[in-house]
Amino acid sequence: MQESQDILAEELVKNPEIEKVIACDSQEMIERRTHVPLICKVFNQPYTRLIPQDRYQFHVDREAKNSLPAIIENVVQKVVGENAPDKGFKTTFGKQRNIGIVFSGGPAPGGHNVIAGVYDAAKKANPENKVFGFLLGPEGIVENDAVEIDHDLVNRYRNLGGFTMIKTGRAKIDTPNKMALSRETCQALNLSALVVVGGDDSNTNAAFLAQEMFDDNIQVIGVPKTIDGDIQVKDANGHVLCAMSFGFHTAARAFANSVGNLCTDSSSDVKYWHICKVMGRVASHLALEVALQTHANITLIGEELADYTDNQRLQAAEKKGETDYLAYGMTLRHLSRVICDGIVRRAAFGKNYGVIVIPEGVLEFVNEIQVFIIKLNTIIGEYNQTHDSDFHSTYPILEDKLEFLRRLARRSEEEGGIAVWNRRDDDLFSDIPEFFQEGLLMERDSHGNFQFSQVETDKVVMGLVKDYLDILKEEGEYKLGIHQDVYRKSMAKGGLDPDLYGKAIFRNYPEDPFLMVKKSIISIKTLKQGLLQAGLIHDSDDIPVPVKKIYQKSVPKFNTQTHFYGYDGRGNNPTRFDCNYTYNLGLTVFSLIANGSTGQMAGIKNLEKDFAKWEPIGIPIAPLMHLEERKGKLALVIEKSVVDTKSTAFMAVKVSREKWLAAGPAEDNYRCSGPIRFAGKSEEDRPITLVLNAIKTAPKN
Ligand code: FBP
């Protein structure tokens, strides 16, 4: 019997019709692979040339000047098309080149199209050109682990998400030894150029590689990648050079699709609050875009919390002639109050459900947590620099780490309490839940960054929210509003006079459409007392069933479902915007290489405008760098862009907050952005954040 079933199964999979249906290549993939992205006008010409753009200025850091002398004088370059250049130009442009390309850091949708753009442009310029892909990220450069990318390989991945073709990794080329090995690899492969597709830290690394390999004539070009959207470049006068890193749009749209579906589900079964943590590290760009795409009821924006001032507290201190510095900046406690306020206000209108969006890095903007992150970064960084073994190998379990901190606190006390970690820090740290202590003490990434995605930010925030909601329940503040019609019907069914009971039970009877049970009624016992006092029942009577039922309806249950949106959106197939953006970035990269640039990042200016206005450019990396704390000491890095709380996009969210909270009798205001549609007219052509920010903040060029 079993044998005949196995034979049948084998026959089934050999059936061509069945094979076709369950093949790996879905129709979507087939269509994506053959799709040809739009190409900026300049790339329709056989050659491209670079025109320096002196009008863009930068504030150059002194340390950057010292460390990166070969590339610090670089300027913005505009790519222009060229039909018939002179022979010398043609020879240089078309000379045979080997180009290496590497993905660095987290995947971002569109990466394969960067490779496709570089590959197509390189082969067009000279069919003998070769493109090598380094495997598993920068480690592949150090280890000389590369594959030659050919026609078939590129075609297999056109317009598809992920970095599957050559994989990625988070290694950093940050020691003289790794630098030397990387150089050897580039020489061994006879590379004319190395392309680093990465985030702020990887582009920083690209600048140092450009400096290191300058005398070898190996050019290094960066590409702004990261779903976090925190590579946005403006010059010193606010001219936008790179409005957004690639991958952001796709990730935001993918998150928004899921969050939007939750809005639909939660407003259908009206029993859950969905807590959605979204990726983005420190910056809240992704959360902001998700808010604009979905109109979720509550969206936290970290950068806004940093600007927060507790005016009540400030005024109270002022009255005493004092300044209360703790009134500046958001505390965890206050943050949980803000969320509770929204939940309680919706509940008053019978809405015991909703959607909350929390950026994964929100805690970075909460005073007390930010202090812990900075202090622990310093402690771990210093430990690693001064010991042979790293902090996490020496202290693998939480208790060991805590004991190490306790020792630091004791030592600090002996020395007068001036060290990084003192008794007060230690006491405060012991008060936080264990899972959060673990999170804060977790290993930093290779660039020394705190790994927000590994911390249960939502759990920390929502734990406090739940506690405070319980208090509000006991105080009679958190109740579900009962619609008048529901109340009246229920009373009529039980043959009771609604007016008689209404005044005894509710605080706003009969004025409002949603009735709120009196604050003093917080249990069956207090309900009975209320009815007794109103003379509606006697001590020996039971509470009438309809009244009891109405009371029970008014008691909210706070049921939550938590979700984390990050890796899923990061692996999504790119939106049309990201397909076009990345392919043109790839073409720009080749143009920079063929024109002899190094230490430049490929960019597309005017991303916030129609495609016809997109302008491929080269952006100098070195002038973007400044000193920042990394691994406990100052290091030159590209500054991360965070949400500008004066931007139009942020303002749009701020002014819509009340509407999207929908704490009123009207319907919710959810917006359905829908799934990423690769083809079709209805697919939006750029992120909403970009569209909005271009309306008022773009300087007139
Ligand atoms: P990059 O900065 O490398 O582009 O990565 C972005 C990101 O997806 C963040 O949003 C997230 O915090 C982090 O990577 C997760 O890192 P990992 O992939 O190592 O878990």
Outline the fold blueprint:
Blueprint: H1 2-14, H2 16-21, H3 27-34, E1 47-53, H4 62-67, E2 76-82, H5 87-93, E3 98-103, H6 111-125, E4 130-134, H7 139-142, E5 146-149, H8 151-157, H9 176-188, E6 193-198, H10 200-212, E7 219-224, E8 233-234, E9 240-242, H11 248-269, E10 273-278, H12 285-294, E11 298-299, H13 302-306, H14 311-319, H15 332-347, E12 354-359, H16 367-386, H17 391-394, H18 398-414, H19 423-430, H20 434-440, H21 457-474, E13 482-483, H22 484-493, H23 498-505, E14 514-515, H24 524-533, H25 545-554, E15 560-565, H26 567-570, H27 576-594, E16 600-605, E17 615-620, E18 625-630, E19 633-638, H28 648-661, H29 688-696
Parallel strand pairs: 3-4, 3-6, 6-7, 7-16, 10-12, 10-15, 11-12
Antiparallel strand pairs: 1-2, 2-17, 4-5, 8-9, 13-14, 16-17, 18-19
The protein binds 1,6-di-O-phosphono-beta-D-fructofuranose.
Describe the structure.
The chain has 701 residues and is an alpha/beta fold. The protein has three domains: 35-81 and 96-246 and 579-638, Rossmann fold; 248-471 and 560-569 and 646-674, 3-Layer(aba) Sandwich (Rossmann fold), CATH 3.40.50.460; 481-554. It is 45% helix and 13% strand. The protein is built from 29 helices and 19 strands. The strands form five sheets. It has a nine-stranded mixed β-sheet with strand order 1-2-17-16-7-6-3-4-5, with helices on both faces. A four-stranded parallel β-sheet has the order 11-12-10-15, with helices on both faces. A two-stranded antiparallel ribbon has the order 8-9. A hairpin with a 5-residue loop joins β8 and β9. α28 (648-661) crosses α29 (688-696). The longest helix has 22 residues, at 248-269. The termini are far apart. 47% of the residues are buried. 1,6-di-O-phosphono-beta-D-fructofuranose (FBP) is lined by residues 105-106, 108, 170, 199, 226-228, 279-281, 360, 452-453, 566, 570. 1,6-di-O-phosphono-beta-D-fructofuranose (FBP) binds at residues 105-106, 108, 170, 199, 226-228, 279-281, 360, 452-453, 566, 570.
